[in-house]
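Hi Y.,

Following your request, here is the sequence exactly as I used it, all 144 residues.
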Amino acid sequence: MFIEIEGFSDLNNDKYQAFLDLRSKIYVEDLKYNKFHEFDGKDSKSNFYLLNNSGKYVAFLRYTSDKNNILIDRFGVENNFRRQAFGSLLLRYVIKDLLPSKKNIQIISSENKIGFFKIFGFQKTLQQIKIGEKELLLLELKKQ
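Below is the corresponding structure, written out as tokens. Let me know if you'd prefer a different format.
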């Protein structure tokens, strides 16, 4: 097994197309998000990571950043590759990559995924996020 994690922000490459394909498969097809809400126009201001498992992209993450905060608003693992540590590998890598910025790191989560994100040090906040009809929660990484 060969695993590689690639970060990028350029939208004019094959990695971005792979990101879009995987995101559509996970969020639109599997999780039934409305494609008009899912493809929200924020990609041009975002940064991306893809996890490549032996030549196949199986997990992704997108984040935006401002002066004080980093918001991970898209994170997913292809259904056939869940529960095999790919999501954990990607999230650990990204957190390690982003920590030197000293910004608050936040992630949007559904209620049923909070336990997973708590393993990495995220805590539930009082803030909720609505994407289309979906009510989601904002979690924040505990300061060490």
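The first strand starts at residue 3 and ends at 8.

Thanks again,
Q.
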